Amino acid sequence: MIEILPAETLQGVAEIPGSKSYTNRALLIAALAEGTSELHRLLHSDDTHYMAEALQNLGVTIDDRDEGRRWVIEGCGGRFSSCSEPIFVGNAGTAMRFLTAAICLGDSEYRLDGSDRMRQRPIQDLLSALEQLGCNAVSENGNGCPPLTINAKGIPGGTCSMPGDKSSQYFSALLMASPYAQADVTIEVEGELVSKPYIDMTIDIMQTFGGEVTHDDYQKFMIPSGQSYQSREYLIEPDASNACYYWAAGAIASGPVRVQGLSRSSIQGDIGFVSILHQMGCSVSYGPDWIEVVGGELRGGEFDLGNMPDTAQTLAVVALFARGKTNLVNIGNLRIKETDRIAALARELTKLGAKVDEGKDYLSITPGQLKGVEIETYDDHRMAMSFTLAGVRIPGVVILDHDCVAKTYPDYFDDMRRIGLQSRPADA
């Protein structure tokens, strides 16, 4: 655990590692492709290493070159090898969901498992959709959560449907595996689809590797059978979810803070976070390959985070320093993340002195008399990273289990120090 020390300002230029979302999608698609692919500027984190290790256990060769800056992947052409041992993915939600569908392309029995928290994270909607497509993938404990047993004989194809308000990752999983199905696949969305930018990201990578997919206004997706991904070189874009911590730092600690490698043309939904900061009173500047935030007098408001749920914890911390109430809405899917993020936010913000109201899919934050406390992180990397920012303005904030940031951003604290973050061991 570490104590965050208040700072007059945080400012500088940040270079963010590659996107976890892009990395894990690119890893899977390159693994399924024909031929040899090269991935550049990928993210090295617990989640991406779990994905890579799982693919290697399924017979895919992944060669780490140039001190990790480049991975060379020998694709399996959509034909995974058998694996007698359970495939373990920790608490990597993308790996669990993406692999659940992709492993169905094999011709063997597989077991897919994860951490204790992963065993509490629902996946039944995806299992039901796979069953509709003719696959046999079941929850071993009958509770709709991992561990899973998958009796793979390929994906027969056909039509399936899923609720759209749970997780876009279920849809991404089906989309990426479906080009190798034995018949055309149609995926129908029940209700409104959340996190559409992540679907756009999935489709973008599929098309880059030669996959074909169309959709009817995000209500129905059509994937022709008989396809195969083609190998290629692929440069992974910096992670906009992780960039949000830097933009928030600029918002609450004067700035300017500039993030290199991202522009307003990015299709990552979390780019929209800077627009919210602008609405709250910050100055935002855009360059050809950078976005910069300068803090101002912050004011609250109501913000729909349905397309950028991973920014909710960061925005909740920014709200501590805003005038008036801040409402975060359309965030119900946060309850099935690494922890119940709505409940965790409510507890920790209240401890800091804010007035908080939580509902099924919303959180309201009104600043109060703020004080330093120990922040529980719930083994959730985004709790640790976002609440670190609170300590920049509030003396005495201690982040427990701060090392959990390794899930997606192992160098977070080192990189933050480059823009002025100060910390010390909490027992010093």
Helix/strand/pairing category? alpha/beta
Query: In CATH, what is the homologous superfamily of the largest domain?
Result: Enolpyruvate transferase domain
Shape: globular
Radius of gyration: 21 Å
Distance between the ends: 11 Å
CATH hierarchy, class of the largest domain: Alpha Beta
**How does the major sheet shape up?**
4 strands, mixed
Number of helices: 12
- Percent of residues in helices comes to 25-40%
Segments where pLDDT lies below 50 for 5+ residues?
A: none
List the helices and strands and how they pair.
Blueprint lengths: L1 E4 L4 E6 L4 H13 L3 E5 L5 H12 L3 E5 L4 E5 L12 E2 L4 H10 L6 E5 L10 H9 L3 E4 L8 E4 L6 E6 L4 H10 L7 E6 L5 H13 L5 E2 L4 E4 L9 E3 L4 H13 L1 E7 L12 H8 L2 E4 L3 E5 L7 E3 L7 H8 L6 E4 L11 H12 L2 E4 L3 E5 L7 E2 L5 H13 L3 E3 L12 H6 L4 E4 L3
Parallel strand pairs: 2-15, 3-14, 6-7, 10-11, 18-19, 22-23
Antiparallel strand pairs: 1-23, 1-24, 3-5, 4-5, 7-9, 8-9, 11-13, 12-13, 15-17, 16-17, 19-21, 20-21
Helix pairs in contact: 1-2, 1-3, 1-6, 2-3, 3-5, 5-6, 7-11, 9-11
Q: Any key phrases for this structure?
A:
single chain, 428 residues, alpha/beta, UDP-n-acetylglucosamine1-carboxyvinyl-transferase, Chain, 2 domains, 4-stranded mixed beta sheet, 24 strands
Characterization of the model:
The chain is of the alpha/beta class and 428 residues long. The protein has two domains: 2-17 and 239-425, Alpha-beta prism (UDP-n-acetylglucosamine1-carboxyvinyl-transferase, Chain); 20-220, Enolpyruvate transferase domain (UDP-n-acetylglucosamine1-carboxyvinyl-transferase, Chain, Alpha-beta prism), CATH 3.65.10. Helices cover 30% and strands 24% of the residues. It has a four-stranded mixed sheet. A four-stranded mixed sheet has the order 2-15-17-16, covered by helices on one side. Helix 3 links the parallel strand 6 and strand 7 (109-113). The model has no long low-confidence stretch (mean pLDDT 96).
